[in-house]
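so i finally got all the pieces together for this one. its four components total, 282 residues if u count the protein bits. some of the lines might not be protein, just check the labels. i wanna see the whole assembly predicted at once instead of chain by chain like last time, that was a mess tbh
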Amino acid sequence: MKDRRNTMQRELTYEAVFSYPGHPSADDVYRVISSRYSTISKATVYRNLNSLYEDGRIGKVPSVFGYEAHYDHRTDHHCHAVCIKCGKVVDVDVQYDKDLFDNAVSMEEGFSLSSHDLIFEGTCRNCGNKEKGYGTEGIKD
Amino acid sequence: MKDRRNTMQRELTYEAVFSYPGHPSADDVYRVISSRYSTISKATVYRNLNSLYEDGRIGKVPSVFGYEAHYDHRTDHHCHAVCIKCGKVVDVDVQYDKDLFDNAVSMEEGFSLSSHDLIFEGTCRNCGNKEKGYGTEGIKD
DNA sequence: ACCTTATTGATAATAGATATCATTATGAAG
DNA sequence: CTTCATAATGATATCTATTATCAATAAGGT
């Protein structure tokens, strides 16, 4: 593993992800930390989220549909759903045969597959309610 | 369906996607059209790719891992692999039980799932060769 | 205490895509 | 054919998420 020094900033980043209810974006993490440690830079948060992910200490839900990436205190492989309206990420509980996909092959010669992601799309409660005109602007996730 | 007027630009966009070998990005499409119709604007290409997709005339492989979206002359639901080095998209032939996923539910109350994408990650021939130092800069996909 | 270098904070830069807006041109109606 | 409302265009500015740059700081082994 890469040589890392222990910094306050990285530990705060780790703790913020770990204690966040759900799947924080980099900006969510930044805002949480800022409240306690106001001089932290957003670049530092991005760097530390990446290094924590590299070290396997946190999970990462990569950016899809142009939305931000989200982070996860769970590090095991599981499925996520992304809200197509706002990019919110939630867990999905679905059992399937991973081996089937691990043995899939691409249709192009020379393209070697390494992994797969099963990503669900949908509408989160907040965005779904807005659509129906329930006037739920105030709902916080 | 939305009221659309027939324009040369939109038909050129459609033809470019349809005749492109593989999965062109918006920029790929733009470059193809530019060679014949040099005054077309990139904004127009983006707009037309979106409207053609809305109308179900072309397929769209959404942006993942921060890479550009790609377009597809196939409009049926099938799987893709994305090169984690360069973002290239290729088809993957894998059979699976779509119903299983269509019946999955999110772990958060109020989040309603509408569809899913099975996305593979890997390394395309070009990037894979580069890695091994085969000096294949010139390979064109 | 010293010194190498990982890390930081501030900021600029990047990529992909959308928003804006004055101008153009489509195509239905007269 | 003209007329005309408005969809579409081209040029450009703007946006968002993220990474790159770089001088200054600080971690931690010696």
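Confidence is low (pLDDT under 50) at residues 136-141 of chain B.
Residues 5-7, 25-27, 42-43, 46-47, 63, 66-69 of chain B lie near DNA strand C (CB under 10 Å from a C1').
anyway lmk what u think
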